[in-house]
Amino acid sequence: MIDTVYYFILNMSIASCFVIVALLLIRQIRPLSRRIIYPLWALAFFRLVMPFTLPTQWSLFNFTGGLVKRLITVETITHGMAPVQDSWMPIQDNWGPVQDSVIPIQGSSSSFMNTVGVANQYVPVEYRTQSLRQVFTTSAVIWAIIGAAVIIAALILYTLTRRELNKATHIRDNLYNSDMLLSPVLAGLFRPRIILPVSLDPDSEEGKMIISHESVHRRRFDNLWRLVAICITCLHWFNPFVWVMLKAFFTDMELSCDEAVIGKYNAEERKTYAKTLVEFAEDKRMLISTAFGRAGVKVRIVNVLNYKKLTLIGVVASSLFLLAVTVVLITNPIRG
How far is residue 117's CA from residue 256's CA, in Å, rounded to a whole number? Predict the structure, then answer.
């Protein structure tokens, strides 16, 4: 059964590479606010965990040539891979002769995009040759062992860090301080605490800016999204594009949070905010990166100093762009 799970994971991972590359290219569009780009990473997350989605004629994968060997509908899998009649001829892929394939017509139900194409049946996977079965079974065991090891290492790291952060002293409300920190950090998932270094006065101008920054993270449940991103990366540890995605996601998380804070500041206040970023650079004593003092400070400073508020036209245009990108990247092709 583990090889069946791995087969689906591998297919999702291959398809997600195209989505990740598309998002990395979109990040290079300078006029786009990071507050628009940041939520787009949810599309990559979706592709990495959800094998089924709706087919449309606008899908990116309509233009990927022979990448998609087959599209398999949900109904086909739940009904034991029984042949389904449709208006199209069976297809021939690169692994064997023409066989019955299940391809949804436009407007049909959700489908699974099969990019590997080495199986005749999918739940459980029935491989075309015994050698393919051996290869995928061995690969699935290696995937599971390394994935479990990465998850255990992450849990140990998280536990050790939380143990240190739990020693923080309460100031007021959800504010704490700790002599173990050089930079502020937001700790916890559903009731997160803002933990400041003891050298920082929470009532100073810099302290208020930092608290505003961490409060944005808290309202957006960014720590929860951070955990989701890490878990997905552990699941797809073998895919280098996913590790690139993780780094870009964390960067965009901080840049979008900066923009949410500095939107209400004038030019001088933004300079003060930028100086605060430099002062609280990443705390290398901690086992995890802190929020306000994450790496990539130079990029964040440039983004802060060059920030421009969106006009009403810009908001509308960005919203339409967000909708269009969502449809293009989240849907399957109408045929495979």
Answer: 39
CB contact set of 100 (below 8 Å; sequence gap of 6+) = 83, 90
221 torsion bin: left (phi>0), alpha (psi -120 to 50), beta (else)? left
| Under 8 Å between Cβ of 19 and 241 | no
Distances (CA, A) of 152 to 142, 156, 175: 15, 6, 30
Q: Coil, strand, or helix at residue 121?
A: strand
Is 319 contained in some domain? no
Does residue 211 lie within any of the structural domains?
A: yes
Of residues 58, 97, 48, 102, the one with CA closest to residue 78: 102
- H or E segment to which residue 149 belongs: helix 130-165
* 93, 188, 311, 323, 324 from 40: Cα distances, Å: 32, 24, 21, 10, 11
Range of the domain at 282: 147-305
Using CB atoms within 10 A of its CB, is residue 184 exposed (0-12), middle (13-18) or buried (19+)?
buried
Q: Over the stretch 215-262, which tens digit does the pLDDT of each residue have?
A: 999 999 999 999 999 999 999 999 999 999 999 999 999 999 999 999
Q: What's this model's pTM, rounded to 2 decimal places?
A: 0.83
Q: Tell me: do 227 and 295 sit in the same domain.
A: yes
Assign 318 to helix, strand or coil: helix
Could you report the per-residue pLDDT of 10-38, keeping only the tens digit for each? 999 999 999 999 999 999 988 888 888 99
Pairing type for strands 175-178 and 193-197 reads parallel
